Amino acid sequence: MDTLEALRTRRSVRKFEDRPVPEEMVRQILEAAMMAPSAGNGQPWQFIVVNERARLDAMVNLHPYVQMVLQAQVGIIVCGDLSKEKYPGYWVQDCAAAMENLLLAVHALGLGAVWTGIYPKEDRITGYRAMFNIPDHVMPLGFAPIGWPAQRPKSESRFNADRIHYNTY
User: Fold this and answer.
1) pTM > 0.90
2) Where is the Nitroreductase domain (predicted)?
């Protein structure tokens, strides 16, 4: 799958088959995530791979929109490590780029995932910190439940010429 095809066809997947995701695929996904650009090449990310069934199941209590985790075989929490920022405040952009790379890698491997937001919701941040023992200098940005897709959401172009401005707004 080439890059433009991946961008055009990647969609959020919320239903998964009951099939394990090989550890080698998880590694490939994390390698892709870590290839994201970051401010000053600071790479302020940390990743928590969640692959214990009991822990995945318990996550439904952390977030109102993660029910699909009950079917997912693995999940990855993308976090910003504030102690690793080269330019303070840019961790959100850096980690969002890492999350997008992660989602594209998942899709390219034939898997499915959905980005569920954690930051900036304080109740979600607090819940994830407690459940995963996340230190104060590390901020959870988002969680991606991952698995073999049991659905194939259709892709339609989202191009909208009305949203494009040249030289000035």
Assistant:
1) yes
2) 7-55, 66-148
